[in-house]
Amino acid sequence: xxxxxKHEGTTTKAxxxxxxxxxxxxxxxxxxxxxxxxxxxxxxxxxxxGGETMRTRPPLRNGCSTAFxxxxxxxxxxxxxxxSEDGKEAVRRLAATSxxxxxxxxPGVMRRxxxxxxxxxxxxxxxxxCSISGYGQTGPSAELPAYAPVIHAASGYDMAHLAYQPGxxxxxxxxxxxxxVVTGTYGFGAIASALYQRSVTGAGQHIDVSxxxxxxxxTLTELQSSQFAVPPPPRPMFxxxxxxxxxxxxxxxxxxxFQALMGVIGRPDxxxxxxxxxxxxxxxxxxxxxxxxxxxxxxxSTDACLRVLGAAGVPASAYRSVSxxxxxxxxxxxxxxxxxxxxxxxxxVLNLPFRMSGADTAPARTVSALGEHTDALRQExxxxxxxxxxxxxxxxTS
Length: 398
Description:
Elements: E1 19-22, H1 28-38, E2 42-47, E3 60-61, E4 64-65, H2 66-72, E5 76-79, H3 85-96, E6 100-103, H4 109-112, H5 117-120, E7 128-133, H6 148-154, H7 157-162, H8 178-201, E8 205-210, H9 211-216, H10 220-225, E9 240-242, E10 247-250, H11 255-264, H12 279-284, H13 286-297, H14 302-311, E11 316-318, H15 322-326, H16 329-334, E12 337-342, E13 345-350, H17 374-380
Parallel strand pairs: 1-2, 1-6, 2-5, 6-7, 7-8
Antiparallel strand pairs: 3-4, 9-10, 10-11, 12-13
């Protein structure tokens, strides 16, 4: 039985009734606000008349990006010119009715537009304003341009990763943007925390999320060892173990796991061998230990290795492509994917990786067309489509 089955049929959304203004683009901010949308918040995505960058990113079908859809399903789309007084006034009026605002412009942009936290809290003291940036909102690096690959390099993450690639001296290319996804997730957590605090104090606040510090949080061991002059001791290098038909990943994380693996490979004597008998000894002789494991694994196919290792309780997996991973029956059991639609047709998106017994966490079913909700929201806030703001009128005086 799945967790959600305990409350079968529930349509409760944990963040139902919350309104979010989403000024973010690309990945980090949109990932954060997609999570808010899945939890039931009304997310209003503010775009230019050309649409945000990800609308043009492949895969494209009939001009519609599924990458954009993955990040923005369930959000409303409103087109505003933030450089015009009309656009700024629309934002002020929307902010007055909103609970959360998320933006990932370079620090200073929203201030120059007079749409920064200090400006908007004047119209809504309960507003939770989340700013996501490369280096944080203040400091000597604050206004430097930053994208995920730059932050991977700047944080030390790439060089830390390189240290685990024997014989390599050139950092890897960056194809998967960890900094964006993890930063967006931290933003989501900070917003949830601020919502709880607001329920106690009644006041909103400004949240400042740094991609640089996010990536440093992934270098736990390296962050600690870098503080001391004594060279860190060697550590297990988990990597591919060759089989007769490919590779498997085997992880030895406890004495129980180690002893089970030694039984599987026919070397129970190694449990008491001074080279491997303790965790510290295994660290010193890790390559020799895994060479011994590979003598065994090379005699079996990948599937056969996994069957034996699984039966013994040793954590292991084949190296799979994303397509192969998506075909895993476990994901079907978890209902990890949902079908959604945009103007280009239907496709699947990944659901939130958690389930709740008392709340529905599934995404909405459609991706909004550019500007689809502009007219309706302008009417709601008293700015009928095409109507200019009279001179001298503002949200406070209109």
